[in-house]
Design a protein that fits this description.
Blueprint (H helix, E strand, L loop, with lengths): L4 H6 L18 H11 L1 H10 L5 H17 L5 H30 L1 H12 L19 H6 L31
Protein name: LOB domain-containing protein
Organism: Phaseolus vulgaris (Kidney bean)
Family: Belongs to the LOB domain-containing protein family.
């Protein structure tokens, strides 16, 4: 039996009754490394033990998401991600209002009101109410498709090597 990601990381023997195996499979050793770094292996084990069995999968994913957010941004963690999203939402709302005012200049307020009424009659127009509180329901089908880890590459991998240069990698100044 191959050890789970948690046991691999901690270099322990992984038994059939391993608490971490369902939540940290062998291929997710890096995710457990983040969780271990931020929360500690013993704390994660205690958290999972104290959680209802049907909620452990959700708890493990939440801990993993929080740990990766803390590794990415050690100061703000998840709060930084939330603030960025709220700022993006605020900017988009401002742009939408500006666009509505711009359209209203050309078509008039009466036509604009009719357009808004017509748009709200479409079934997809009111799918998301941004002002309503979130209703969280835990469903294994939803949980299995949810991946909190979008493709992420460290900042240093986006750096391009300098253009032009000699064999030693030193850049050559352009002629003046």
């Amino acid at each position: 039996m191959t050890p789970c990601g948690a046991c691999k990381y901690q270099r322990r023997r992984c038994g059939a009754d391993c608490l971490m195996a369902p939540y940290f499979p062998a291929e997710s050793i890096q995710r457990f490394a983040y969780v271990h770094h931020v929360f500690g292996g013993g704390n994660v084990s205690n958290i999972l033990k104290s959680t209802k069995p049907e909620l452990r999968k959700w708890t493990a994913r939440a801990l993993t998401y929080q740990a990766e957010a803390r590794v990415r941004d050690p100061v703000h963690g998840c709060v930084g991600v939330i603030c960025e999203q709220e700022e993006s939402l605020r900017i988009l709302k401002e742009k939408l209002e500006k666009a509505k005012r711009e359209v209203a200049k050309y078509v008039g307020p009466e036509v604009m009101q009719k357009m808004i009424e017509q748009c709200s009659s479409y079934p997809h127009a009111n799918m998301v109410d941004l002002e309503a509180p979130l209703a969280i329901t835990i469903d294994d089908a939803d949980l299995s498709s949810w991946d909190p880890f979008p493709a992420w590459e460290p900042a240093f991998s986006r750096l391009q090597p300098p253009q032009g240069g000699d064999a030693k990698g030193e850049t050559i100044a352009p002629p003046s």
